[in-house]
Amino acid sequence: MKSTPTGLHDILACPKCKSSVTLTDVEAICTSCAQTVALFENGVWACGRIGRSYFDSRFETMEDSYSNAGVQEIFYRRQSHSVQQIIGPGSVVLDVGCGARMRYASRPDATIIGLDPSFASVAQNTAGIRICASAAEMPIQDSSIDLIVCFYSLHHMVGLDHEGCSEQVLHAFTEFARILRPRGNILVFEVTLPTPLYLIEMVSWKFFRSALGSRMDMHFYSISALREIALRATRGTMVGLKITRFSSSPFRFFPPILSIPRFRIPRILSPLSPIALHLQRD
Ligand SMILES: C[S@@+](CC[C@H](N)C(=O)[O-])C[C@H]1O[C@@H](n2cnc3c(N)ncnc32)[C@H](O)[C@@H]1O
Ligand SMILES: [Zn+2]
């Protein structure tokens, strides 16, 4: 018989009404809707109807890119360190868009929850609790998380047009504010576009989405656009928002397309700059 992971009953909620759930070894039943809202499959709490995800077949190839020294230097080394610094004793940490692997070391007394809509990715992850779901509708109880981290996932939350994409990210931040405990922290790492390129993307994204379909699975933001979405979604609940830019040598080579790890360019040729967005709840 499978055992229920520690603390799960304090964290898992109905994805629709956010009520608490009754857990068995194989399913979660909403105490309000009385419906089965999550199934426990291969160690993952799979919520709702989850379709196939682009990342199901990509995460293995992407691992080659992650081990590249340039990728580590530009996108992960300092970022991971800042997560490690902020995980406190007994913290409940939610990694949104966790993929197949956590990118930071944790503490033995922390509870790490990995959440990702790609079932194949999250099933590979070693987080203590694994949930297959989208950031836009999280099956997590109100005020139950001390730290939310999100490494390079927001730009994958896409809709049908520019407004639809921004709305997905707005939903994600609204969810972050809902599930965060008082004094809890949100640390989002993203790659951002300079404003002129963001404006070009804004008017052309829908055309490329119509032409390429679901292959057009990324939508990037300028720093100010991301800041505005985060503030709009979390208005009145946060004490501050801090943005950190991560600079690195313009001649650092790295693979810009994670699924093509052998193709490398110097950072100066990439329009995308990594930032951290740090919010703390009141
Ligand atoms: C570039 S990968 C990053 C994975 C991991 N965070 C890392 O840095 O190694 C982006 C991840 O975002 C996830 N993702 C896509 N849409 C999402 C959504 N709506 N909610 C949460 N995660 C999402 C993907 O499945 C994928 O695992
Ligand atoms: Zn419910």
Radius of gyration in whole Å, from Cα?
Answer: 18 Å
The CATH class assignment is Alpha Beta
Query: What is the β-strand count?
Result: 13
Structural class: alpha/beta
Order of helices and strands: HEEEEHHEEHEEHEHHEEEE
Distance between the termini: 42 Å
List the main descriptive attributes of the protein structure presented here.
binds S-adenosylmethionine, 13 strands, globular, binds zinc ion, 282 residues, alpha/beta, single chain, 7 helices, two-stranded antiparallel ribbon, eleven-stranded mixed sheet, Rossmann fold
Provide an overview of this structure.
By secondary structure, the chain is α/β, with parallel strands linked by helices. The protein has one domain (51-281): Rossmann fold. The chain has 7 helices and 13 strands. The strands form 2 sheets. Strands 1-2-3-4-7-6-5-8-9-13-10 form an 11-stranded mixed β-sheet, with helices on both faces. A two-stranded antiparallel ribbon has the order 11-12. Strand 3 (36-41) and strand 4 form a beta hairpin. Helix 5 crosses helix 7. The structure holds S-adenosylmethionine and zinc ion (ZN). Zinc ion binds at residues 14, 16-17, 19, 30, 32-33.
